[in-house]
Amino acid sequence: MIGSWLDWDRDGRDWPHRSASRFVSTAGIGWHVQEMGPADAPVLLLLHGTGASSHSWRHLLPLLSTVYRVVVPDLPCHGFSRPQGWPDLSLNGMTGAIQSLIALLGIAPTGIIGHSAGAAIAVSLGAKPAAQTKPLVIGINGAFRPIRGERVFSPLAKALFAAPLSASLFALVARGGWFGDNLLTATGSPIDPAGAALYRRLLTASSHVRGALGMMAAWDLTRFDALLSALPQPPVLIAAKDDPMVPCGDSRHAASVARGASLTLVDRGGHLLHECRADLVAGLITDALRARPANRVDAA
Question: Lower CB count within 10 Å: N or C terminus of the chain?
Answer without folding.
Answer: N
